[in-house]
Specification:
Order of helices and strands: EHEEHEEHH
Strand content: 15-25%
Number of helices: 4
Distance between the termini: 31 Å
Structural class: alpha+beta
Largest sheet: 3 strands, antiparallel
Organism: Chryseobacterium aquaticum
Helix content: 40-55%
Shape: elongated
Protein name: Type ISP restriction-modification enzyme LLaBIII C-terminal specificity domain-containing protein
Radius of gyration: 17 Å
Strand order of the largest sheet: 1-2-3
């Protein structure tokens, strides 16, 4: 299993964000834009803002976003392991 940070050049030109790529030995890569974990979102109708940075202050855990990122990486790696462990399907 390989976890590698790469730049998505086309998107970086526009948004200047890095992407996290999780690749298996078969070169199947899963892309996650980890900037979305720390972005804040505002609901148009109600005006309620969902900001992970504010939530981390509210619960007193300054590592909240890092822990969230590590959880996403862990689940992604376990998913790749499960998919790789599935039996091969042959079509006749």
């Amino acid at each position: 299993m390989l976890v590698n940070k790469r730049r998505n050049r086309k998107r970086d030109r526009k948004y200047s964000r890095k992407s996290l790529w999780i690749c298996s030995q078969r070169k199947i890569c899963y892309r996650m834009d980890y900037g979305t974990l720390s972005d804040h979102h505002t609901h148009k109708d109600s005006g309620i803002t969902n900001n992970p940075n504010d939530w981390s202050k509210e619960i007193g855990n300054s590592r909240y976003i890092l822990d969230l990122l590590l959880s996403v990486i862990n689940v992604s790696m376990q998913t790749v392991d499960i998919v790789e462990g599935l039996p091969k399907v042959s079509f006749e």
